[in-house]
Amino acid sequence: MYVKLLKSFCLLLFCLTGNALSLWSQKAPVFEMRGVWVATVVNIDWPAEKGMSVEAQKADFIRLLDMQQRNGMNAVFVQIRPAADAFYPSSYEPWSEFLNGKQGLPPTPYYDPLEFMIEETHQRGMEFHAWLNPYRAVFNIHTSSVSPSHITKIHPEWFVTYGNTKYFNPGLPEVRQFVTRVVKDIVTRYKVDGIHMDDYFYPYRIAGKEFPDEKAYRQYGNGLSKDDWRRSNCDSIIHALYQTIRAVNPFVKFGISPFGVWRNKSQDPDGSNTKAGQTNYDDLYADILLWLKKGWIDYVAPQLYWEQEHKLADFDTLLAWWNAHTYGRDLYIGQAIYRAGTNAAWRNPNELPNQLKAIRSYSTTQGSIFFSSKNFESNPNGWSDSLRYNYYALPAIVPPMPWIDSTKPPTPIFAKSNGNLFTLHYSGKQPVKAFAIFALPENVTENIAYATLIKLLIADKAVTYERLASLIPANNRLFAAVVSEHNVLSNWIELK
Asked: Which domains does the chain have, with CATH numbers?
C-alpha cells in the first residue's frame, strides 16, 4: 500500500510540474477578466437554499469563493437585488426571500451579507461586482413572498404584470428615479468594484401578449413611436445611472451583460449575420451600441450562450461582431458553462476551451464571465480542471480602465534577498492591493509584453516571495511590481 501511495504521489508531482512548465509554451494574458456570475434568484448559486442559518450562509459563500479562486477567477458578479429586494439592509427595499425564506425577514443573528461578501472577496484579491435586476419586481405573482413594505405595495401604480412576473413600468419617470436612488445608495455605502446589470430591461416577448404600457406611452410618448419611446426609456435610466455612479464614486465601474444579439443583419445592415428570434434593440429595447458610443457604460459582456457553428447564432460570428463594436470600452464574453451536456455540441469537451482560444485571439476582448457558479462544482466535461490547470493556471489582473484611473502607484522597494527568498516593501500613499511577480527570459527586452505573470501576492505593505526552481525555468529573470486598487501596475524592479 505504501509503495502504491508513493508511486501515485510521484506521478501527481510529475504531472503538476510538467503542467506548470508547459504553461511557458503559451503566453497567458497578464490582464484578463475571469469572472463568474453568482445568481441568488430562486437560490441558483447562493445561498444553497432559503432559510439557512447565518453560519451556514457564510460558510456556503466562503466555499463558493474558494472554489472559484482555485479555478483562477478574479471577479464575482453577485446578484444582490433579484426582484426589488435586497441582500443588504436597505431603506428602499425589503430583505430578499431568497436569503431567509420570507421577504422582509432580516438575518438572525443579524449581519450584513453584502458587507460580508465584499470583505471575503477582497481578502482573496478578487473584485466584487454588485449585480442588480433593474425592473423585475415580483419574480412569480403566484408563489413569491411579498412583504407589506415592498415597493409594489407602496406604489402599485408603478407596476405592470406580464406573464407570471410583475415589473416596474420603465416608461414612468418616477420608476427610473427610484431605481437610480437604489443604485446610489449601494455605491455610497459599500466598497463595490462595479454595478452590473444583465439582459432584463423590457422583458422578453411572450407570444400573443403585448407589454401593458399603453397608458404611460399616451402620457409620456412625446410623439415617438412606441418602440423608439421604449428605447429612450432604457437610454434615460442608463444615462442617469452612469451620471449618478460617476458623481458618487468615479472609480466604480458600470457594465451591462445583454442578450448576445444586438440586431440581425436582416433588420439592420449593421447587425450580425444571425437569425435570432428576439434581439436587444427590437425586443428588449436596449440599444447597447448607443450606450457604448456615448461612453455611458464601461464594459459590455454579451451573453454568447450558443456553440460554435450554431445555425442561427454562431458563437464565432457573434464574437467577431462584438469585437468590431466596442467603441473603446472593454468587452467580456458571457460563456455558458451551464449548457454542458445539453446537446451534442455541449457534450464535446473541446467546446468551451475552443471558445476561450477564440476569445483570446482578439486584442479587443478582455476576458470572460461564466454563467454560473454552481455549474463548476461537478467539473462538467472536465472544464473546471481545464481552467484550473491550463487556461487559468497562471494568475491574471482584471484589466484596468484608463478612462477611470491611469495613475501608476510608486515602484515597490526591493528590501533584500536571501537565496531564493525576496522581501518587498511598498510605502507609497496610493493604495495598492497586491504585489505582482513576473518572469522574463534572459536577453529579452524588459517589456511586460514579453513577461509572464507567475504570482499575485495579496498584500498592501510588504511580502516575501520564494522562487521555486521547479516552477520557473532557470533562464528567466524575476521582476516585481505593485497593483493599485484599480488594477494599474507600477513600474517594476528586478529581483536578484
From this structure: 31-391 (3.20.20.80), 413-495 (2.60.40)
